[in-house]
Amino acid sequence: MNKGILFFSAPWCEPCKVLKPVMDQITREGINTKNVNTEYDAVLTEKYTIRSVPTLVLTDLNGNEIKRTSAGGWTKEQVLNWFNS
User: Fold this and answer.
1) Following DSSP, what letter does each residue of the chain receive, concatenated?
2) pLDDT higher than 90, residue 61
3) Is 73 left (phi over 0), alpha (psi -120 to 50) or beta?
4) pLDDT digits (tens, 9 = 90+) for 15-60
5) Residue 5's beta-bridge partner residues?
6) Roughly what angle, to the nearest 10 degrees, separates helices 76-84 and 14-28?
7) Which residues of 21-58 are buried (b: 16+ CB within 10 A; e: fewer)?
């Protein structure tokens, strides 16, 4: 199954700033990711009912949610394990 990660974050969120380089690295390694700034993208934030950041939402390529997690402080390995499980 093809899938991708929506990374919901906000500019004021310190854990988001820590997770961003991890997500950037995962993107460079070929995993489909999208950074969603909750301050500016109300449509996706509401669609996925995001209540806290950082939140990762795993979706199929049609945008259907498979699972989600709060991921503050996660390492690359933790994100990849979550993605692949």
Assistant:
1) --EEEEEEE-TT-HHHHHHHHHHHHHHHTT--EEEEETTT-HHHHHHTT--SSSEEEEEETT--EEEEEE-TT--HHHHHHHHH-
2) no
3) left
4) 999 999 999 999 999 999 999 999 999 999 999 999 999 999 999 9
5) 33, 58
6) 70
7) ebbeebbeeebebebbbbeebeebbeebebeebbbbbb
φ and ψ at 68, to 5 degrees? Answer: -150, 165
Task: Report whether pLDDT(1) > 60.
Answer: no
Catalytic sites, residue numbers? 13, 16
What pLDDT does residue 72 have? 83
